[in-house]
Amino acid sequence: MVRRILSVAERNNTLRLSTQRFGQTQPKLLELVANRTHRTPTTRDTARTRYLRTLERVLQRHFPDHKPDAFRTAMDLEKSFGPAYARGSLVKGNQAWAVIAVNEQESQTTIDGILTLGILWLQACREQASGRRPYQGLKLILPQGTSQLTLSRLAWLNPDAAQWHLYELDPTTEDLTQLDPTDQGNLRSRLIHHPDQTAASERFAAAITQIHSLIPPTDHRRIEQRLRSTTELAFLLHGLEFARARLTPSPIGFSHNIELTAGTGPNETPITPQTRAGLTETLADLFARRRAQIPTTDFGRRPTANRIGTTSTATPAHSRLKISSPPRHTGPSPTQDPLYRAAPERWLESVLRHNLAPLTRSLATTESTTIPHLNPDHVYTQVPAIAGASDRGLLDLLGVTADGRLAVIELKADDDLHLALQGLDYWIRVRHHHLQTADQQSLGEFQRHGYFRGLHLSPQPPRLYLIAPALHIHPATETILRHLSPRVEWHLLALDERWRQQIRVVWRKQNKSSGV
Questions:
Q1: How far apart are CA 150 and CA 243, in angstroms?
Q2: Is 384 strand, coil or helix?
Q3: What is the spatial distance between Cα 464 and Cα 424, in angstroms, rounded to a whole number?
Q4: 180, 260, 362, 399: which has the highest count of C-beta atoms within 10 A?
Q5: Positive/negative CA dihedral, 489, 494, 495, 497
Q6: In a domain, 184, yes or no
């Protein structure tokens, strides 16, 4: 593209160029944006409308025996469909295929979500047809070079529920290339060695003592320690990180210095004799407001000076520490306090890491379903090793059941349409590492990297646990789970909404796995 640039203006991370094409007198506006999410609504809608016409043209050329029918991008909140996905049908006689596609200008997160919406679209087409026109399956069309994650998921869908076809569209040539779900290639996943917790406690002993000195002794047991790396230890309260210790090389010799800080992001404050008093008060406020057992005192009437998330002139060091981004709202209910509500998913993870028993407890004495018990002595939090194509990078919890089966535990504290397939992503990668060839001591890859020491792990694939508060399980989750392969043994557990006080499963559903 060749244009003459008449003027340049920068606005909201966008470079606006007034351009003139050769042979034309009227200038036009060309915008260069930092990323696709910064597109204006008009630009985004125009691209989606244009893609819809391109898609119908491509389908007519590649499937001449079928007729594209009722393609649209209109939003349908009742069925969870957004305007980013073009959807319709390919019809041939009394048979049809559901089709869903996404253009190359959408974000990778949107592209990766196409399979969830595709399953829901297939379900909606079948319900609307009411048996008058059987839908053979689903055709997914993705931009070229963006289908790795969707391809890995597709291999674990149920072939008896539908036929699943995946294509990549070259936007330049408008050619469709069908991909084979059985050809997975090498998963982009690696396993990092599990750190030695005993050695870390010794290495950071002085830092742990200093942090404890800032907290009342009665609250010491509430502090969680999490190794971020061999040189960084984080301190958390119900999953919320409030301080950290870092080992930095000493300028003299081969020793290390310990650097202690509190707070997060730009408000991270070094713990020094000058800031110690203010930070002690700040942390006392944090520990008082972020409690599992809700106190009977009215938090709305507590002194508001020097509290986390606010600005204070009394203690300069304290004013720089903002663990909670917005200031808490005063009111009669402590459950509305921002520090109480912050990082709910990490809080849930923290609770379950210390007590998995409620997850496998029967709902009734007459319950006939066999519930595999989770081993409380081998639970790993935020395994940093499962780095896959989704780039989420951290598995919530990894455990093992009493019969030696690995357990992939995916947690959500809020509604998430993609819960089922995000859990499947980790299940795929855990299974991949578990099936790696054992060494001469018959240890698999997990045990060679320091996980599950002293246990005999079953060669069977992992179990998948999806856990969320009952009122925050998206209605579409069960529909997605019904379309997974029976080889994936899943358990959907709904928790009582008061899970911060006590974990209680109010209902559970599961499939019957073949154990393959």
A1: 38
A2: coil
A3: 8
A4: 399
A5: positive
A6: no
Is the domain of 351 the same as that of 485?
Answer: yes
Burial class (CB in 10 A: 0-12, 13-18, 19+), 378: middle
* Contact between residue 271 and residue 210 where contact means Cβ atoms under 8 Å apart: yes
* Size (the chain), residues: 516
- The structure tokens 């990766």 sit at 112
Q: What is the tally of structural domains in the chain?
A: 4
pTM of the model as a whole:
0.81
How would DSSP label each residue in 232-255?
EEEEEETTEEEEEEEEEE-SSTT-
* DSSP state string for 119-145: HHHHHHHHHHHTTSS-EEEEEEEEETT
The Cα 324–Cα 341 span in angstroms is 10
Over residues 193-202, the pLDDT tens digits come to 887 778 888 8
Helix (H) or strand (E) holding 62: helix 41-62
Compute CA 308 distance to the chain's CA centroid, rounded to the nearest angstrom: 27
Question: 248 and 320 share a domain?
Answer: yes
Q: Is the pLDDT of residue 315 over 90?
A: no
Q: How many angstroms separate the CA atoms of 142 and 389, rounded? A: 15
Half-sphere exposure of 453 (CA within 13 A, CB side): 6
- pLDDT tens digits, 388-438: 434 445 678 999 998 999 999 999 999 999 999 999 999 998 998 888 766
- Look up residue 374 and give its two tokens: 């989770």
161 CA to centre of own chain:
27
Q: Which residues of 465-504 are buried (b: 16+ CB within 10 A; e: fewer)?
A: bbbbbeebbbebbebbbebbbeebbbbbbbbeeebbeebe
User: Residues 41-55: pLDDT tens digits?
Assistant: 778 888 899 999 999
pLDDT per position as a tens digit, 321-380: 444 444 444 554 778 888 899 999 999 999 998 888 888 876 554 344 556 788 888 998
Please indicate, yes or no, whether residues 246 and 390 belong to a single structural domain of this protein: no
Residue 188 included in any domain: no
Quote the CA–CA distance of 132 and 94 in Å, as a whole number.
8
CB 339 within 8 A of CB 333: no
Are the beta carbons of 148 and 166 closer than 8 angstroms?
no
Range of the domain at 10: 4-34
